[in-house]
Every structure is written in structure tokens, then in C-alpha cells.
Amino acid sequence: MFIINTYIAKSDIEGVGVFTAQDVKAGEVISKFEVDFDRLIPTGDYLNAPPHLKSLLDRYAFPHPQKPDFIVYEVDNSRFMNHSETPNTDYSDFEAGRALRDIRAGEELTCNYNDFFSGYELLPPELELEKNPELKTKEA
């Protein structure tokens, strides 16, 4: 859960992203795992979930890095953080995300999903749309 002020806006990376509403210093903790707000979902519940919930979790949840029988669904803006090979945050410590460099207010926050999701592979956009057809937008 973010402990800095953030907002959601259109992203140049993909769809929407999460942006900082304040300046952040390099090394500053920007988020902490909050057991009362970040939901741990047993893998069995995920596997038995109805299709609409499974689709939501496929897009916004990730395997818990220390508890293999659970996935994590973050209820705040964290779930909108986009992946980058050159991120401005570090989540190698699952309990606390930190800024890798100074980040200015209005800048998109990015992370490397491999910090907490071992073996993550970014799907090409066309495969992502095949997997999640609800992401397709109508042309004007």
C-alpha cells in the first residue's frame, strides 16, 4: 500500500498507470505491505473463482513471493503500477518499496515485476488482448 500520495492517469507505457503526487527522494520508502489492506487470496480460492473474478485477479494480482499458496491483490493504486526494465522503484524487499532515484511529482511510478514475481514475462500487447478481451477499446 502506498504511503505517499498517488493518482491514476493515462500512461505512455500501457493504459493507465500510477503517478506520484509529491516529490520523492532516492531511497525513500514509498509503500509497505499492509496485511489489513493488501489482500492475500489462497491459490485454491483463485482457482475456484468465477471467470469475472479470475480475469480481475489475472490482471491485477501476483504470486506472493514468500507464501506460494497465496496471491496478493492490492486494493490501492499499487495495482496500476506498470512494469519497466528501467524502473524508478525497487521492490526486491517485498515488505517495503523504495524509490531508486529522486522522482518528481507528476512522474509515473514503475517497477520491475521480476522483483516480486519470479519468472514474470511481459506479454506482447496482442497476446494480452487475446488473454483479456475486455481490454479492447472501441474505435471512435
SSE topology:
Layout: E1 6-10, E2 16-20, E3 29-32, E4 39-42, H1 43-47, H2 51-60, E5 61-63, E6 70-73, E7 82-83, E8 89-90, E9 96-99, E10 110-111, H3 125-131
Parallel strand pairs: 7-10
Antiparallel strand pairs: 1-2, 3-9, 4-6, 5-6, 8-9
Q: Which architecture of the domain at 6-38 and 74-133 per CATH? A: Beta Complex
Unreliable runs? 123-131, 135-140
| CATH superfamily placement of the domain at 6-38 and 74-133 | SET domain
Beta strand count: 10
In helices, the fraction of residues equals 10-25%
CATH topology of the domain at 6-38 and 74-133: Beta-clip-like
Radius of gyration over alpha carbons? 15 Å
Mean pLDDT: 82
CATH class of the domain at 6-38 and 74-133: Mainly Beta
How far the N terminus sits from the C terminus, by CA atoms, comes to 36 Å
Structural overview:
- The protein has three helices and ten strands, in the order E-E-E-E-H-H-E-E-E-E-E-E-H.
- It is α+β, with helices and mostly antiparallel strands.
- The chain has a domain of 93 residues: SET domain (Beta-clip-like, Beta Complex).
- The strands form four sheets. The protein has a three-stranded antiparallel sheet with strand order 3-9-8, with no helix packed on it.
- Strand 1 and strand 2 form a beta hairpin.
- The longest helix is centred in the middle third of the chain and has 10 residues.
- The C terminus is likely disordered.
